[in-house]
Amino acid sequence: MLDPFYPVVPDSSWVTKLVPIGTRLIQLRIKDQPESEVRRQVREAKAVCTQHGADLIVNDYWQVAIDEGCAWVHLGQEDLVDADVKAIRRAGIRIGVSTHDHAELDKGLAIDPDYVALGPIWPTKLKQMPWAPQGTERLAEWKKLIGDRPLVAIGGLTLERALLCLKSGADIASVVGDIVNHDDPIAQAKAWIAATRRK
To answer: What's the CATH number for 5-196?
Structure first.
């Protein structure tokens, strides 16, 4: 079972900070870096996660994940178009997918993913979103539609909102800004770990 606390971080230095304090599930979402740098960071992050028994999820760079022997990739809807899902599966890699509406959910479920993410639950400042906030009611609907797969809530989550998501049908609460932009990210991550594991 995947841990309910799921931070998404922009580089491997965050993995080396958050995993040793008890983070068991973390996504490395690297943007705008040459592939050699992506490989270096994936390798570094994987080593830290292996050492501490944590699950590393590589966003987007599925070929690097295959080459580096990673266990998970996360594919957004655009990534789903280009990714060689058969090659990913042949490598024994599990897949998480992003969804924002019913059409995307159908597309995501077509590859038989290992978890489904729904967002944004609340407005997010991190990137421009063409979708209105989903709200927590949508989580219960999505949970019914995806069956036994874990459901990840993402988008505008604070710790208080994360606990609301977990009560509303999500199995996992994914967070970016409330950790990486926090004045004391380590203390905040510890607070998330303690609260989400109590649910």
So the answer is: 3.20.20.70
